[in-house]
Specification:
single chain, 745 residues, alpha+beta, 20 helices
Amino acid sequence: MKFKILLALIWVNLLQAQKFYFPKTAVNDSVILEKQIPGLAQQVIPHLQSVKYKPENTVDLMDNLFRLQIVAQDYKNSLTSLTENRKLFADNNMGDYRYIGFELYALAKMEQEENNTSFSNALQKVFNQKYESLPEKLIPRLELALNGDVNASRKLLKNFLDKQKDKDSIDYKTALALCKNYLNYKTYSSIKPQVMQLLVSKDKERFIIETKDLKINGNTLSVTIVRRKENTSPLPVILTNNIYAGPIDGFFGKRAATYNYVGVVVNTRGKRNSNDVNNPFEHESQDIYEVIDWVSKQPWCNGKVGMIGGSYLGFSQWAAVKKVHPALKTIVPQVAVGIGIDYPAQNNIFMSYMLQWIQYVTNNKFTDEADFTNAVKWDSIFTKWYKSGKSFRSLDKISGKPSKIFQRWLDHPGYDEYWQKMIPYKEDFSKINIPVLTTTGYYDDDQIGALYYFKQHHQYNKNADHYLVIGPYNHGGAQSFGFTYVNGSPIDPVARISIDDLAFSWFDYILKGGKKPELLKDRINFQVMNTNTWKHVADLDKMHNSSLKFYLQDKKNTSSVFNKPETRNFTTQIIDFKNRDQKDIYYKVSKKDSIKMTNSVAFESEILDKDMIMSGNLSGVFNVSINKKDFDTDTYLYQISPDGKSYLLSTHIVRASYAKNNQKRQLLEPGKTEQIPINNSYVMSKKIEKGSKLLLLVGVNKNPNWQINYGSGKDVSEETIKDSGEPLEIKWYNDSYVEVPVYKD
């Protein structure tokens, strides 16, 4: 009796601490693990749905729930939860390929139990059924969706099991992660070899897929060509230039073929079968012209070529039109990297991420996914560099892998000829007379680059046939489809469109004489968040027809921060660059929310007495005086909604010495009041509800994710903590302002 009471007390204590029984013998014995983990998942499920642990986003809730249900062997309910997750993730069945590996595993398990058959036979049956039932436009996504990394999931599972050595209980967070990692390994180790073979067989029935190695400019480039079997006549070709060699090549090719084009994907130098040197960005403007020339002469091409792709692939299209081949009839650059503009430096400030990306695309002839996604490793490297006080140029050595590319990029802190030769520059844009469709998003990491090309094209070519579509999309969404939730909040239903459908409707319009896409009513087509409407204007400046100047002043000292101060004054900010153990500081918005404001000064507006549509990008000027020769500004504009939640509206960073001219550095004079213009900030279009406030944070960019500008005037990449000298003292004058663009009906 005493033993039973003791056990009961132990269980009560475990429950109060949200811990679950999990025997330590399961760590090293796979048979015991197989027996114990379904019960663990069953224990975790009720807590997942509790007030304490329930995710704010229902998509995340259903994501965790369906995984736990599969581990708990509740396959029927897991499929219901997975279907709900997909519906919440994207409208119009656009996300029905999502997590298809887990779906096939659950279906095969059910089929195995119901018909007393082998797992292999069950898997083949459910795969064939699923493949035939999928919408045709989702077929190209299957290879990527099913290509789980078995080795990586095995390692992650082992790591979580190792944490449980000598423990007979497990906390909620670790239990959830353990179940999810177990499922990843169990699913893909069980299904991947077989389903990938089945997929190859299905693809052979539907497509003709060829691979070739071309000799271009004395170098080898690998090419993948995909055609639908029933398309026997020559067709226009949709070309993608891709540095991310791997399964995604097949996706791009099959996607084009599915829309009744010939899909051609060329890998850059040094990728796949190429033994040439891989120097990202440097050779596209020469190589793609020759690739198009070859493509246009093939029997399956009707002489017309279009290009598509996002990010690096978007950059590639602008490189291709530095000299336009006659066969190239249109480009669709999506979320295009503005090389030298927003990457690897944004407004002349180099980012630590550039090294992570360089290794991602150069470690091998494909992509090093395991290294790239190892957030713990890269956070550790960036933090180690930051705390060391060493120069930014030493970052690659600190990572353990010196990089000539990294060093070469750092040699060009201004937008000089090195960057200019990679893409059209000034008058080059005047010669681009083919139609262009650009897509980007308010939350796209490369929005500044995408809009740079758009603005330059229209500036130098007054007759540019160039359209822009911009909405509440992130970097992935603006090159695929509008996810229902972006940054944790739902987007308007009208914005939940297929970017793929839009792009290929454009190709039909330009290359096949089809109908112009309905959305393209004017040059700029932008979605106004929280209004469920699209608006259409002729140029970017017409996204707004009014503005508010938000002055850097305390609302306690003025009737409105939007009125110019009557008396000139300043707010002083001190930044000690030697302090590398600084604790983060937060601005408390409400009981529900707070915003990190380390190294920033906060200015809060009065409550807005009516709705306001912010539409466009921030401009303005900072009037400052500093005791050094340079610094990097950091600006954030937030909406504080009536219910106390914060929403990021726009950001802006710039190296002060390059703010007036991104090609030529102009150091500041210590003690002198200087003007720093605000250009190249992020565009947003959103209705801000009555009762909201605006919160403006201005400050200094000082963190492990970017170069540190110590203000000595030396090359920032060479500066070390020894160059920091006395703390940076900034006087932010109150006649400085951030101009908020406003649209009024």
